[in-house]
């Protein structure tokens, strides 16, 4: 074990008062006036010697010890006062802790242990009660408690003497000791003789007591020696707490076995580190009403985590514990509830008992006193086995189980669907903004554009960047995109530097000047002016012009070109001429045309030739043609001229030549018909004709080029120029415009083609252009940079926005864009998550209604099934013998029903562990009882601590050690641990774990903390508001009953009296308090009343006065009334609480700034406890006004908060308190708060009906008309977003509203977005407005 851990455990051990030198159970040198009294002082007050009291106790009988009042004996009356105080203290401790600490200690050990530690303490304790019987005080032995050794003495004896005692000695029972006092003492001597070195002298066998002698510490130590211990016949009646000593063996075992490596590992080992799956409803058994915070805590435990539960007053901490125990029971687990306060255990037990689970719970307040009751319960459980079996065989049981699982699974389905809805509603993963926000930031009825393709590129977290661009773009565009703006159609200025402004200006003037110069040159050449556009066109056609010059290579071609110019291009078709060339040249293929026959004889010759060719077919005709034809010689002559023989071959060739000749003549005739085809060759020479065609085509080409030069064709008359002159003119023109391309290229570096053209066409624009340039250059640069920064989808969106609006109005464009984008994303998200649309149909209402019914049904089924499971656990797995008799529980039943030699609880539990936990799976006990009765091993699945803020850390470790999992519940703003009648040992070393006092603080260092925040005790906000603001950071949420809050009655009454503070009491106040109590008992007898004072003397005074007042009316103190002080009121609650502040000016009118325990560090927690006890009303009785308390110089917060509370109470009493909902919300306001939109709408439409936000908890909007609340509006704002679960928002909150008599309506943002008029109409109905609503 690490040294640090060992030191912590050793310090915890020393802090247990039973081993501290400051413990009255070890060193009692003087008797405390209120808590202890010398039994010897009672001698003869009841007629007998004091030893007779001891004798009676040995024999188990009660004895009268004094009269309540004896008018003849002052000593009796003084003793009676002490007895009454002891009785009250004993009763208080019992009510507070469930332990009976009133004992008679006898005889007393005097001396020192071997290490020099002084000891003076009782050897035996006789547990007793002080009872008033008629006129006498009677000392009664406590039933079933039994005489015990002073265990603290035995432990100290072993510890300081370094010896080991018989383990059974501390648990020794005196039941078998003789009732005769002499024999009893003899048996005691024999029991101790061989076990403890103790001088058991003869004085102790005398039947008398001696007076308790008081010592000073130095005096006592001087008169006693190391290692010497002696018994004296002294006896003391008083408070001797014994429970703490039960923890010591556990710590000794922890230290001896090195059971805890360090606290970090110890607490970590109580939690499961694995990520647990979601807790399914069928695995959650909660028969008691719970809220979301409690359910979250239960689920954390179900996940295997050990947790700290911070449960402020009235938040259902006990309810949570009941559900934890019930759930453990249903799951077949063992659970242990640990608490030092009896009342807290009783509250839980009573609730479990009401759920028919009491038989399965073991409640141990005092392990000695409660043994018999526990054993009887165990026996009853065993006896009821057959009954349990019978009850569990019913058909209803099977149906309950089936219905429970059906309901649970349907709850899971619905909550999963609602969780999906909530996740989809608030998720911003799709577009950087939740659809909830989009609903309230967009309007489906407002103008929009279709951004179907562009919207995925715009996420809302980055939207401001684009919006800034859009607004800037719009402002620039409104300036620069006007139709009359000279620089609208410009080259981008994005890359220009400041110096470029001058260059652009020079470029503008250079265009104008150059054009003027060039125009003059052209006028000289052509007699006309031309602008730069025409010149540029000419320069672009330089190759064509040079080609034209080339084809006009000689005068003949130029002549042909001139002849063609009057004709249209269609007439001088290159295609037609080329075709004519082709067909003409085809005439020379095969046989060339015949050329000797004159053209006018060609027809005659063709006829003669045909006759000769026809004659060949008949010999007679051939002979006749040869003999008689006149054309014979013509044919022969032509044959000779063509070099052909007069035979068939020659004739055939000639025939072909004649055909070619005829075809050629036909083509030439067509050519001659065209007047522009001059100089057609006269002969039929093929080459000559071919050259003619070539030159004609060149001329056509030149004509086509020239006619395409629109700038020249109208102004240059080719007939006026020779070829040389024409060519020279063309060359001069080209030289004149040769610089235009370079100039143009240079200008186009700064000017757009449109601007250049405009300047060329209207040179007068140069001046306004340069003026605008000088004014706008920087803005144009920025604008064009902005344009270039825009990506394609941004440009498309801007174009669409402008197209829709036709104006560059930045606010309008932004609004249109945001609305359009919102609608596009809504469509996308709702398509992806159809559940979002459920709120606009009956689906959401149906789901919510069904879920509410299922949760209520499951709660009832849980209660029924729990009882069934608990019964089943009793009889399942029972073993029987051959005769069918039960073997299981047989020996256990014997041990718990026998009348003699009854086993201690610890032995029974150790021996019959498995069987016992089958019968009683859940236990409730104090930390000391846990150590006393349960073996030091991991017995429990879960150990739960309640009221942990009041339990010292050292008292928790042994109980925690016995559990696999730990739940620590408490409130760090309430009372800290306090040892009422013992001094606590402190360590000097600075160790964080030792510097915290309570188990709540210790566990909080190592375990996760959950907070319960719903407050249900107080019926009005005034009763909890002060604590909520000053102690709980406004986390507590209380919804007041509507009927109650509408009464407008102050929940706190400020009753000022003229009291005086004297001897720590204020009698005037006390009398006023008693008067208030008596009045309430008469007028409101059904109300529970609590009186709380700020110190014990005032409590005693009021108690005495109240008892006297009741006695005068012949009444006893009602059980419904208590009188307590701020030190012991934690855990209590009453309908009406009456405060007696007490503090007041003294008789001289001087106000002392002394406030008792309130002045201490942490004293303010006492005030918090006190002011949170009332359910319905507080009556503050005080002798001072807040201003009388001067707390400026007070160090701690307690007095300052008292002053503030007095001021608060007066404010409430005067009806100046204004309810305020402090539900935590983000610091910045959000446009998606629907409640704010509803508030603004109501202010505009409903006049005197106010929609208030942040006025009441569990609501978003409360509706108020004048001084009456009429209803509540729930929304899907931050309250819904931060709800812990679907059941929180859809079940628990609606149920609470109904329970508190509130009419309410839930308004979802989608409905307000989609059908606002309908929502407004429904809200008018809820508010009771008579104004007509839009239908």
From TrEMBL:
One of its GO terms (molecular function) is hydrolase activity. Pfam families: AAA_11 (PF13086), AAA_12 (PF13087), DUF4011 (PF13195). The keyword Disulfide bond does not apply. The keyword Transmembrane does not apply. Keywords: ATP-binding, Coiled coil, Helicase, Hydrolase, Nucleotide-binding. It comes from the Bacteria. InterPro entries: Coronavir_polyprotein_1ab, DNA2/NAM7-like_C, DNA2/NAM7_AAA_11, DUF4011, P-loop_NTPase, SF1_C_Upf1. Belongs to the DNA2/NAM7 helicase family. This is DUF4011 domain-containing protein. It comes from Dawidia soli.
């Amino acid at each position: 074990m690490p040294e640090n851990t060992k030191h912590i455990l050793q310090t915890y051990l020393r802090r247990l008062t039973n081993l501290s030198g400051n413990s009255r159970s070890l060193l009692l040198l003087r008797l405390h006036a209120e808590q202890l009294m010398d039994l010897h002082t009672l001698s003869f007050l009841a007629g007998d010697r004091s030893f007779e009291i001891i004798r009676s106790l040995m024999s188990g009988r009660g004895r009268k010890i004094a009269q309540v009042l004896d008018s003849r004996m002052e000593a009796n009356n003084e003793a009676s006062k002490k007895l009454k105080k002891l009785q009250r203290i004993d009763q208080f401790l019992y009510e507070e802790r469930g332990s009976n600490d009133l004992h008679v200690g006898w005889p007393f050990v005097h001396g020192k242990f071997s290490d020099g530690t002084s000891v003076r303490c009782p050897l035996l304790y006789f547990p007793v009660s002080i009872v008033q019987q008629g006129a006498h005080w009677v000392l009664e032995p406590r039933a079933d408690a039994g005489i015990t050794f002073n265990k603290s003495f035995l432990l100290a004896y072993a510890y300081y003497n370094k010896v080991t005692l018989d383990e059974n000695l501390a648990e020794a029972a005196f039941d078998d000791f003789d009732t005769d006092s002499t024999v009893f003492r003899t048996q005691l001597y024999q029991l101790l003789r061989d076990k403890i070195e103790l001088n058991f002298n003869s004085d102790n066998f005398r039947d008398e007591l001696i007076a308790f002698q008081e010592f000073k510490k130095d005096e006592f130590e001087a008169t006693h020696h190391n290692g010497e211990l002696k018994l004296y016949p002294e006896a003391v009646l008083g408070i001797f707490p014994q429970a703490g000593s039960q923890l010591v063996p556990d710590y000794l075992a922890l230290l001896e076995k090195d059971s805890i490596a360090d606290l970090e590992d110890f607490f970590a080992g109580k939690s499961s580190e694995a990520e647990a799956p979601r807790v399914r409803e069928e695995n959650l058994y909660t028969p008691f009403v719970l809220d979301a915070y409690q359910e979250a805590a239960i689920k954390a435990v179900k996940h295997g985590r050990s947790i700290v539960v911070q449960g402020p007053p009235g938040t259902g901490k006990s309810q949570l514990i009941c559900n934890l125990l019930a759930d453990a029971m249903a799951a077949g687990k063992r659970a242990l509830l640990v608490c030092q306060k009896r009342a807290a255990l009783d509250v839980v037990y009573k609730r479990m008992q009401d759920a028919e689970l009491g038989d399965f719970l073991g409640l141990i307040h005092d392990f000695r006193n409660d043994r018999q009751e526990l054993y009887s319960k165990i026996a009853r459980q065993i006896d009821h086995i057959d009954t349990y079996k019978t009850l569990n065989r019913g058909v209803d049981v099977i149906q309950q189980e089936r219905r429970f699982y059906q309901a649970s699974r349907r709850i899971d389905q619905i909550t999963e669907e609602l969780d999906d809805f909530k996740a989809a509603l608030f998720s911003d993963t799709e577009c950087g903004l939740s659809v909830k926000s989009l609903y309230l930031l967009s309007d489906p009825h407002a103008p929009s554009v279709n951004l179907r393709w562009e919207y995925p590129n715009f996420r809302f977290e980055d939207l401001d960047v684009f919006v800034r661009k859009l607004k800037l773009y719009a402002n620039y565009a409104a300036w620069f995109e006007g139709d009359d703006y000279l620089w609208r159609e410009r080259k981008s200025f994005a890359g220009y530097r400041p110096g470029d402004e001058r260059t652009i200006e020079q470029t503008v003037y250079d265009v104008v000047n150059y054009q003027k110069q060039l125009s003059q040159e052209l006028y000289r050449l052509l007699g006309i002016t031309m602008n730069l556009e025409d010149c540029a066109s000419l320069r672009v056609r330089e190759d064509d012009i040079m080609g034209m010059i080339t084809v006009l290579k000689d005068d003949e071609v130029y002549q042909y070109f001139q002849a063609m110019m009057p004709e249209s291009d269609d007439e001088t078709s290159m295609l037609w001429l080329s075709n004519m060339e082709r067909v003409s040249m085809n005439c020379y293929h095969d046989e060339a045309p015949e050329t000797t026959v004159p053209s006018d004889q060609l027809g005659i010759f063709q006829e003669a030739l045909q006759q000769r060719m026809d004659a060949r077919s008949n010999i007679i005709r051939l002979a006749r043609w040869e003999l008689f034809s006149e054309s014979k010689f013509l044919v022969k002559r032509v044959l000779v001229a063509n070099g052909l023989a007069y035979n068939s071959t020659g004739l055939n060739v000639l025939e072909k030549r004649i055909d070619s000749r005829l075809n050629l003549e036909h083509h030439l005739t067509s050519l001659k018909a065209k007047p522009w085809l001059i100089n057609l060759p006269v002969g039929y020479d093929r080459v000559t004709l071919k050259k003619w065609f070539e030159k004609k085509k060149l001329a056509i080409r030149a004509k086509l080029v020239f006619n395409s030069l629109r700038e020249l064709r109208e102004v240059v008359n080719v007939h006026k120029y020779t070829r040389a002159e024409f060519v020279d003119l063309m060359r001069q023109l080209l030289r004149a415009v040769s610089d235009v391309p370079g100039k143009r290229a240079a200008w186009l570096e700064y000017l757009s083609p449109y601007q250049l053209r405009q300047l060329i066409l209207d040179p007068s624009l140069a001046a306004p252009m340069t003026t605008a340039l000088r004014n706008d250059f920087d803005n144009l640069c920025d604008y064009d940079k902005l344009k270039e920064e825009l990506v394609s989808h941004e440009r498309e969106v801007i174009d669409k926005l402008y197209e829709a609006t036709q104006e560059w109005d930045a606010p309008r464009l932004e609004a249109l864009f945001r609305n359009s984008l919102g609608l596009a994303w809504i469509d996308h998200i709702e398509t992806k998550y159809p559940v979002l649309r459920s709120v606009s149909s009956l689906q959401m209402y149906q789901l919510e209604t069904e879920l509410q019914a299922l949760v209520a049904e499951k709660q009832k089924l849980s209660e029924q099934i729990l009882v069934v499971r608990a019964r089943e656990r009793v009889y399942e797995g029972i073993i029987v013998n051959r005769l069918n008799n039960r073997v299981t529980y047989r020996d256990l039943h014997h041990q718990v029903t026998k009348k003699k030699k009854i086993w201690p609880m610890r032995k029974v539990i150790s021996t019959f562990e498995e069987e016992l936990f089958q019968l009683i799976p859940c236990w409730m006990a104090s930390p000391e009882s846990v150590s006393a009765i349960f073996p030091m091993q991991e017995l429990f699945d879960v150990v739960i601590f309640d009221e942990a803020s009041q339990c010292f850390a050292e008292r928790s470790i042994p109980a925690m050690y016995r559990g696999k999992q730990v739940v620590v519940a408490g409130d760090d703003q309430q009372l800290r641990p306090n040892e009422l009648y013992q001094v606590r040992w402190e360590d000097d070393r600075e160790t964080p774990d030792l510097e915290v006092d309570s188990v709540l603080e210790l566990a909080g260092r190592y375990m996760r903390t959950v907070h319960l925040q719903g407050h249900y005790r107080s019926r009005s906000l005034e009763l909890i508001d002060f604590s909520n603001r000053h102690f709980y950071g406004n986390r507590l949420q209380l919804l007041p009953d509507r009927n109650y809050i509408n009464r407008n009655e102050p929940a706190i009454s400020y009753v000022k009296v003229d009291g005086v503070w004297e001897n720590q009491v204020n009698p005037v106040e006390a009398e006023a308090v008693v008067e208030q109590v008596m009045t309430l008992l008469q007028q409101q007898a059904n109300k529970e009343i609590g009186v709380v004072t700020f110190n014990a003397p005032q409590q005693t005074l009021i108690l005495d006065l109240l008892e006297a007042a009741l006695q005068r009316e012949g009444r006893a103190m009602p059980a419904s009334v208590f009188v307590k002080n701020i030190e012991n009121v934690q855990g209590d609650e009453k309908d009406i609480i009456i405060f007696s502040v007490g503090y007041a000016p003294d008789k001289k009118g001087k106000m002392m700034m002394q406030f008792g325990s309130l002045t201490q560090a942490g004293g303010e927690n006492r005030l918090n406890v006190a002011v949170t006890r009332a359910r319905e009303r507080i009556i503050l009785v005080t002798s001072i006004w807040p201003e009388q308390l001067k707390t400026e110089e007070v160090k701690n917060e307690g007095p300052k908060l008292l002053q503030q509370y007095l001021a608060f109470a007066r404010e409430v009493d005067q009806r100046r308190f204004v309810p305020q909902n402090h539900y935590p919300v983000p610091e910045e306001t959000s446009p998606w708060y629907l409640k704010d939109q509803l508030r603004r709408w109501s202010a505009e439409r409903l006049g005197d009906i106010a929609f208030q936000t942040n006025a009441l908890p569990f609501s978003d909007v409360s509706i108020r008309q004048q001084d009456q609340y009429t209803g509540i509006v729930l929304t899907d704002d931050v309250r819904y977003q931060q709800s812990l679960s679907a059941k929180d928002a859809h079940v628990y909150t609606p149920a609470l509203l109904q329970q508190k008599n509130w009419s309410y309506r839930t308004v979802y943002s989608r409905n307000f977005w989609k059908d606002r008029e309908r929502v407004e109409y429904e809200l008018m109905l809820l508010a009771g407005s008579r104004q007509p609503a839009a239908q």
